[in-house]
Amino acid sequence: MEYRGYDSAGIAMHTEDRVAHLRTLGKVKLLEDLMINEKPKGKVGIAHTRWATHGEPSEVNAHPHQSNERIFIVHNGIIENYLELKDELADKGYAFTSKTDSELIAHLLDSYLEAGLSLLEATKQLKDKLQGAYAIAALDHSDPNTLVLARHRSPLLIGLGEDENFAASDPLALADLTNKFLILEDGDVAKISPNNVEVFDKNNKACTRDIQIIDIKSEAASKGDYKHFMEKEIYEQPNAILNTLDGRIGGDDVLENIFGEGSNDLFAKVKRIQITACGTSLHAGRVAANWFSAIAGLPTQIDYASEYRYKNPYVDKNTLLVTISQSGETADTLAALRYAKDQNYLASLAICNVPTSSLARESDFLLLTNAGPEIGVASTKAFTTQLTALMLLTLSLAKASGTNPRLRARVIQALRQMADIVEKSLELKDDIVDIASEIAQQDNALFLGRGMFYPIAKEGALKLKEISYIHAEAYPAGELKHGPLALIDERMPVVAIAPEHELAEKLVSNLEEVKARGGALYVFGNAKEKLSLERGKYISMPECDFY
Fold first, then answer.
1. E strand segments, 208-299
2. What is the pTM of this model?
3. Greatest pairwise CA separation for the chain in angstroms
4. What is the pLDDT of residue 547?
5. Domains of the chain, with CATH numbers?
């Protein structure tokens, strides 16, 4: 689970006479070393890797948190009313040692136990007190065989074994232990022991959740011979794209109803598209917005999921809502989908990589990217497979309305070549390493693109920020003269996405403006004649059909 957070880690484990409680600042390896020294032995426990939200990375802010050395909890999510609850608990005499919003959960549970409730009944009370999102696992020192779980708008599942049961926020964490899972719903509380699982729904009534079989190859959680997961997932892109296409195209067209039963009939009614997503997924959506218009003839609106709920959008009755998320648990995207349920949408459709996710289960129609687990924090194969899936959606919408049959056939042939083209692109590693070594010396970078390649430039800028902590921004190349050009000098590297298509000549004129100001240009293109560069480098990309 280290990819979910790596600034601190901790564990609380029932031993013979106490709960061993170990926490450390830094990566899981440091916690492993601490456990080797401490040698706690037990069969029931909770553990957590943290990505700081409330409170800086530190040992005292690391999970698990405890109250009176009796209640120990781990928590994913954000408690929005934590200041109010913290004041209430302080008035009752509880002292806080951390700056997190999670510690109050332990104290709140302890206060309920002091009032005579069991841990299970106390956890059920949280639904009336906590505002925000949470996945919680809790243990009580006086009950050494039991964990209690609670979920609200943050993923949580139970793994089923033989005389052992598990809980995690991601099935990948349990890949080597089981392939049988219960996916908890919002509002669920569960009590698990080695031999028993009880689940209670949002109304606190005992319920059952269907067993889901999720087979994850153990090598998916291993870096293999790669330096890190991101590098591994970059090289997995060709196969991931093939997996997205598998069973979805045939001959010169896309197959029927690949988005679900009745999807083609619904697509014939669609007159407008609304896309909502975050980060990398939003950039994939911005590329697709060009396709929906040019190929399917559908006007498209795209919004940040975090902003969508607050704009009071007008929704035409023939509008299809498209949400995009690798995990299917992106909080803002889920909130946008739930908000949209009360709007006038024709239907909702999700592009997602995780079949058991909230987004997949709550949407009317779905296409899984089948990219396999993505562990690297910076998205790679999820992005390219989202683009592949969105092109399949474009073709399905165009087919349903009888639009552009010749162009559809041409795009299908281009899709069939995509995995090979990506494979060839990966052979450019040495050239790209040279560029990276030069950009790494700078504090800022500018990315440029035109048309559907502008969102690709935005994704490049996002990647540079995420990975190197170098400030980077992206602009449509035509906007250079409206401000950004003033920033360009010999210290400002400029990365341009410049394929040979109808906007290539206009982009070249923009790049001449960069050259005139001494900026170092790094151009990714496939023109037959390379752009002449005094500073920088031209990377010749494999030829492909841009539709």
1. 211-213, 249-250, 253-254, 272-277
2. 0.89
3. 79
4. 57
5. 54-217 (3.60.20.10), 229-424 (3.40.50.10490), 429-540 (3.40.50.10490)
